[in-house]
Amino acid sequence: MDAALTMACTSDLAGMVRGKGFATADLEKKIARGIGWTPTNAQITCFDTIAESPYGALGDLVLWPDKETLAQCSLPEGRTMSFLMGDITELDGTAWECCTRSILKRTLARFNEVSGLELRATFEHEFMLPGGSGTRAFSLQGFNEVQPFAEALLTALEGAAITPDSFLREYGPDQFEVTLPPASALRAADEATLLREITRATANAMGQGATFSPLTGSEVVGNGVHIHFSLWTTDGAPVTYDVSGQDGLSKPASSFIAGILRHLNAVSALTAPSAISALRLVPHRWSAAYNNLGAQDREAAIRICPVSARDPDAQARQFNFEFRAADAAASPYLALAALVGAGTIGIEEGLQADRATEEDLSLLSKTDLENRGLKRLPDSLEAALKAFSADKTLLEAFPERFPDIYVAHKLGELAHVADRTDNERFAEYQTTY
Fold it and tell me: Which domains does the chain show, CATH number per domain?
């Protein structure tokens, strides 16, 4: 792979990957000196409008490319792609308040300080390749129809040192899923960002248009992002599983989950952050609709995943849980930061997760739900943003001015689609993500 140009990138508040390009021959120089960046860029929405900004035309920043994230990919038709992620700082080197990667680093450092543990994570990605047969879920025939794309994607991902755990033909029309093996939390967010961009680039090179949009129609199964977690000691011992713990969860794992569930309404403003995201988070869409922990329940907000290992040590290493109320309108860094921030609160306060549910919660009465502390997730982005702004404990996980800037950004996005019908919104988000 020999790309003449490389792009230094950041994942912004809309989960869009933006940056500046330069001659690949200058890569080492750019890593050493950084690249100029503009504060108001944070308020460019996913639709390329500019939301209300506290920065105006003032200020300068530096984007520092991280060579560990370098992706140099060979694409179909002889095309190439070279890019890498980075951190944005003030001119004096301090982390910038709206750098999503720096915010994740901040929450991970706090998690380690409070728990003494390390976090591993991975992202499962669902996307669609419109224009195929539209049917044949999970079938060999459906898989074979896109095998040229799948093989081209694998080749491209090699250039980012990413090896998928699986690639499958999903249930929705022209829908596919790529899963990745677990990694350190920061690397997991890097890989999630790289994978989305490489998938889009591979599809474009083959004359197709991949979309990760949360929904492409009211009757269509949506595209989710499932985020898996496990807890480890700093010397590499697994601590998520406890054979004597409730639902097999260790005390820190239970506390981490309880923190997420307590703050879930606010967290959803960063994990399911588009104007159409809440339309997917309803019962019987195999997403998530309530703030519950579920035992191998694919409609739970947090699902305890099954293990196939028989050896106790292998079981402990395989045991993990997944967060399901997320989609690709979110920056992987912000989604993970919100979850880690809430989970850390749970550990710090010694919370205990309620017993995992094992039934269809939509069949329970309002009174039964209230008695069990179960609540529906926000039914709109506006409601999620209101919950986020009101959750003062969770807001402490972020830089002081970030929450107001983020809310202004999202209000700008909402204003752009305010007069659209649902179908018009679906179409616009489909081309955007």
Answer: 97-432 (3.30.590.10)
